[in-house]
Amino acid sequence: MSEAGVRPRVDGRTLRAERTRRAITDAHFALIEEGELRPTAERIAERAGVSLRALWTNFKDMEGLFAAAGERLMERQRAEHRPIPPELPLDERIERYCEQRARLLELIAPAARAARIREPFSAQLRKNRLWYLTIAREEIQTLFAPELAAAGPGAAEIVDALTVAATFAGWSMWRDELHLDVPGATAVLRRVVTALLPVAAPA
Predict the structure, then answer these.
(1) How far apart are CA 95 and CA 93, in angstroms?
(2) For residue range 24-40, what is the model confidence (pLDDT) as tens digits?
(3) Residue 155 belongs to a domain
(4) What is the pTM of this model?
(5) Per-residue 3-state assignment (H helix, E strand, C coil) for 175-196
(6) Is 105 inside any structural domain?
(7) Which of 64, 63, 42, 60 is closest to 51 using CA atoms?
């Protein structure tokens, strides 16, 4: 609030611009989720109910749209994410972690499949992927800190292996290449995580 205790008024044009940007990014995701992995700007604008000019007014180019879409996808993940207490026993942490990763990976799967097509030609999509990988690694390092500490010099390799298994690279292999259903892919993820993590020595 301001010093006078009055909530500052948001400019109407700013609110409209935010709504338009949200409509455009949501339209982008909706088309991808329906199987249109390379939607054009024209299709996105049509789906959002805005003019093509409005799309380019709000986003300078497709890279700008990819940046906003990446942030929107991260918002969705944060809304679905439930922190796992790091003090839980290892087997319970693994169970909760794998169930949650499966849910979140299914959430981002359509966007991740679409991004793979355009990623070689888009610096922003590569940046988005690095962002997701960094967050995934940080969660692994925090949630399994005691076990990684017990691994000693091998901890870095374990984190690398877990990052592959618990991000879309591993999930896509199980779901898209081996054609496992979600419970089957989750079971494989659980087995991999369990096998990789050493049991921490008691304090």
Answers:
(1) 5
(2) 999 999 999 999 999 99
(3) yes
(4) 0.84
(5) HHHCCCCHHHHHHHHHHHHHHH
(6) yes
(7) 42
